[in-house]
Amino acid sequence: MPWRALDGSTALAIANVDEASRIFRFEIPFRDWQLPSEVKILKITTSSDIELGSFSIDLPNCEVNLTGLEVCVLEFK
Questions:
Q1: Per-residue pLDDT for the chain (77 aa), expressed as one digit of tens each?
Q2: Rounded to whole angstroms, what are the CA distances from 68 to 18, 36, 43?
Q3: Counting beta carbons within 10 angstroms of the beta carbon of residue 28, is it exposed (0 to 12), middle (13 to 18) or buried (19 or more)?
Q4: DSSP classification of residue 47
Q5: pTM of the entire structure?
Q6: Distance CA 57, CA 27 (A)
Q7: Domains of the chain listed by start with CATH number
Q8: Which is nearest to 39 in space by CA: 15, 66, 12?
């Protein structure tokens, strides 16, 4: 489940607990998470912030590549 900050921003933490790289695929539940119909996703790690792209209620499928033992936060803007 994501969390929502007081300013209304929404984020989701994900972790790869395997030593091998993994691809995490999921469908963004726009309505359930009360997101606007289009969002940009920012992948935030301890070393960088990377924009993953724009997603919409019509194109909700997201892929996130994580290296072994990597943890990140996805911020939905």
A1: 899 999 889 999 999 999 999 999 999 999 999 999 999 999 999 999 999 999 999 999 999 999 999 999 999 99
A2: 6, 32, 16
A3: buried
A4: S
A5: 0.92
A6: 10
A7: 3-76 (2.60.40.1180)
A8: 12
